[in-house]
Amino acid sequence: MDIHQDLATIALQEARLRFKGFDEETAWTLGCLLRSSATARGAAVVIEVRLARETVFFHAMPGTAPANADWARRKRNTVELLHRSSYAIGLAMQKEDSSLEKKMGLPPRDYASHGGSFPIAVEGVGCIGVVTVSGLPQREDHQLVVQALAALTGVPVQDITLK
Predict the structure, then answer these.
(1) Has residue 163 been placed in a domain?
(2) Distance (Å, rounded) from C-alpha 51 to C-alpha 2?
(3) Opening angle at CA 132, ends 138 and 103, nearest 5
(4) What is the pLDDT of residue 10?
(5) Could you list the mean pLDDT of each consecutive 10-residue stretch along the chain, which spans 163 residues?
(6) Beta carbons of 99 and 108 less than 8 angstroms apart
(7) Given this model, what pLDDT does residue 152 score?
(8) Strands of 117-122's sheet, edge to edge?
């Protein structure tokens, strides 16, 4: 894994994975797609979709623990504050040999810069919510979310996949 290449790819993901519109029905579709994808992989994850800081979809699959929901909360807090993918933020912190606590004074108990949370953006509007997955290694959490967003936005996933 090359941090510079991954950061460039994630920037491309953030630029391209935008919806024309997004509402509670779309959130339900996204949450169910993530659940189906995780089930097909034999993975147990927590899935959360939020709009305007309100949870509109939450599912904890059998095999997850309360810690997974807490990780999702911490990653989601980071994306809600910074409007960037939690994985991109984590890689940037790693590249700078820093942390959210050192750089911004954010307590690690409430903010995590680990992969799996991604801004929900609408064309011409910007970030209106967050989708988060927790339960897999962080790069896999991130990729699970990106694949679902690509499917729903019509972006060919092979054009934006981390190498």
Answers:
(1) no
(2) 32
(3) 65
(4) 98
(5) 94 98 98 98 98 98 98 98 98 97 98 98 98 98 98 97 94
(6) yes
(7) 98
(8) 18-19, 117-122, 126-134, 46-51, 54-60
**How far is residue 127's CA from residue 140's CA, in Å, rounded to a whole number?**
23
Query: What type of residue is 9?
Result: T
Residue numbers of the domain that contains 98: 3-154
CATH number of the domain enclosing 126 = 3.30.450.150
Total domains in the chain come to: 1
Instruction: Measure the CA–CA gap between 61 and 34, rounded to whole angstroms.
Output: 11
Give domain status of residue 48, yes or no. yes
In a domain, 162, yes or no: no
Residue 1's pLDDT is what? Answer: 72
DSSP string, the chain: --HHHHHHHHHHHHHH-EES---HHHHHHHHHHHHHHHHHHT---EEEEEETTEEEEEEE-TT--HHHHHHHHHHHHHHHHH-S-HHHHHHHHHHTT--HHHHH---TTT----SSEEEEEETTTEEEEEEEEESS-HHHHHHHHHHHHHHHHT--GGGT---
Strands 18-19 and 117-122: what pairing? parallel
- Residue 53: Cβ within 10 Å count: 10
Residue type at position 133: V
